[in-house]
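Order emerges. One example.
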Amino acid sequence: MTEPRPATDTARERIDRYLERRLEGRGPARVVPLTGDASDRRYFRILPAQGDPFVVALHAGPIEFATLPFANVAALLRQMPVPIPAIVGHDDALGIVAQSDLGDVTLQAHLGVATAAEHGALYRQAVEIIEVLQRRGTELASRDYLPYQLAFDVEKLTWEMHFFVKHFLEAYRGATIGVAERQALDEEWARLVGELAAEPRVLCHRDYHSRNLMYRAGQLHVIDFQDARLGPDTYDLVSLLRDSYVDLTDHDVDAFVAHFVTRRYGATAALPEFTRRFDLMSVQRNIKALGTFGYQATTRDNPVYIQYIPRTLQYVKRNLVRYPRFERLRELLATHVEEFR
């Protein structure tokens, strides 16, 4: 019998074939396209005539579920436990993974209708999930799980800085960077990256922000976790609190940082030193985000992220100005980024 070749079928044909088997005898189902992420996966909500709705992630072609980073990391997170969508089925030949439906409301979206008290409670909940990731991630460490084979090391962090130069400075802002200037930037990147890469490593989600936290009945659920890896203990906290998609007051950021430090390290922990490391991580993380936004706008012809560039530039400038160690870096970048002047 000839094996199906789902990569050549339309998305709907592949989904229909999956539903024929999964929902056999339970009537038709509505298939509703959902907004996807920046990957080659596409997402659809399935609304069966009988039973609960669920979501399918449609990959570009056939998969081997057992080897998917998503499946591997999900198995780790369920042991902690961290709230994530349940995996309710998969079809390797059709390139489909089915997950429980968490709805459409992200933390970013819910903040628009949340009271001040609820806003604070949700961010404390998000901070506490990071603490669980780090604490339980250390306890469960095993090379059976992919995150313990990857890290934000010098090579990875430096690559992200070069990505910013290529896709934000050169492609998006049209900068022409000479040999001497590029060398000077590389020296600044090396100082920044060297310190971050030398910090003790913990389990990091890698993209822990308001769009990757789903809100459902008062509970946050974590999604898009397949790229988890080891990195500094400030990494996910920076992603959450220096989020390009959400405005948080400095007072709130300070309070949430303090909440994390107390939960993770106790009341006697050195908060000023942690805050310094948090700001250092913010510079790298936000510069990397600018590179991503430039890439989406110029290479992927996707202008959606342009609206988030001003807020991210503000984050970077705040720390470049705050710390004398970044004076030279700010001067170099300000040549091409007027917001840093």
